[in-house]
Amino acid sequence: RLAGTALVRAGRYAEGDSLLARAMSIQVTSAGAAMQGFSFAQQKRWPEAITALQRAVQLDGRNVEALYRLSLAYALSGDPDKARATALELAQRAPGYPPLEGWLQALGLTR
């Protein structure tokens, strides 16, 4: 998983995706699913990004970065209602999450 993460962060998505998929076939983790979601989002592969990020949140409800990225993915895929609902869920789970306030404002939401 670490090599796949490094490759994704370096912008080498195809190679990183392959290693992440292999790692996830061995051991499914929230962090692995979240990194897959990040990679797919960077490639604008929204359905796959959303599925991976949903899985990351299901595996670990404390993974607030995955929940934030899921809200972003919903918005960027053209589903503002799910983006707002997910952002409000994030506000309940992690009210102090650093980018949250600006994201809520961007979505036209207040606490």
Give a structural overview.
The structure is a single chain. By secondary structure, the chain is an all-alpha fold. The chain has helices at residues 2-9, 13-26, 30-42, 46-59, 64-76, 80-93, 100-106. Helix 3 (30-42) packs parallel to helix 5 (64-76) and helix 4 (46-59) runs antiparallel to helix 5. The longest helix has 14 residues, at 13-26. The mean pLDDT is 96.
In short:
This protein has 111 residues and is mainly α. 75% of the residues lie in helices and 0% in strands. The protein has helices at 2-9, 13-26, 30-42, 46-59, 64-76, 80-93, 100-106.
Fold topology:
Layout: H1 2-9, H2 13-26, H3 30-42, H4 46-59, H5 64-76, H6 80-93, H7 100-106
Q: Compute the number of strand runs.
A: 0
What characteristic shape results from the CA principal axes? globular
Rounded average pLDDT = 96
- Share of helical residues: over 70%
Radius of gyration: 14 Å
Summed up, the helix count is 7
Which properties best describe this structure?
single chain, 111 residues, mainly alpha, 7 helices
